[in-house]
Design brief:
3 helices, Thiol Ester Dehydrase, Chain A, 6 strands, alpha+beta, single chain, 153 residues, 34% strand
């Protein structure tokens, strides 16, 4: 069954916030095996002009997943998405500034496109990740592939 095209343009605001800590950043850095000292050593980060340690660029993937928690297009049954048919297509980040401890983040995800690609459908979502003060720290673009669900032509 094809995805519901009425979702194009629909936005979902996260139901809560995520407060970034040094410990969150350290754990993520350890998990991905990145030894950049700016991620774990405040003095190293300050020598690069940052007020504290900074998060690796892909750290926001975990934040986005934490914030989505059942409140987004992928969990809306009216979309018609069967997770058994989904693969991750691509992920792209535009960082407006590094994420650092003390940031309290929220997000809004918008479905920007659903299109056929052969027998598959590609759904593109854009997520604005902002501080509670309204400062955008990142804009993330995610494409998922729904295999074999395109309408027959």
């Amino acid at each position: 069954m094809p995805l519901n095209r009425a979702f194009i343009g629909r936005s979902y605001r996260a139901g809560g916030t995520f407060e970034v800590s040094r410990e969150h950043i350290r754990r993520f850095t350890e998990a991905i095996g990145d030894a950049n000292p700016a991620y774990v050593d405040p003095d190293a980060a300050k020598s690069l002009g940052h007020p504290d340690v900074i998060a690796p660029p892909t750290f926001l993937t975990t934040v986005g997943l934490s914030l989505a928690d059942g409140n987004g297009p992928l969990s809306d049954p009216e979309l018609g998405l069967d997770f058994g048919r989904v693969v991750h297509g691509e992920q792209h980040y535009v960082h407006h500034r590094p994420v650092r401890p003390g940031d309290v983040l929220s997000s809004t995800t918008t479905v920007v496109d659903i299109r056929d690609a052969g027998a598959n459908e590609l759904m593109t979502m854009e997520t604005a990740i902002v501080t509670t003060e309204g400062e955008t720290v990142c804009t993330a673009r995610n494409v998922i592939v729904s295999r074999g669900t395109a309408a027959a032509t």
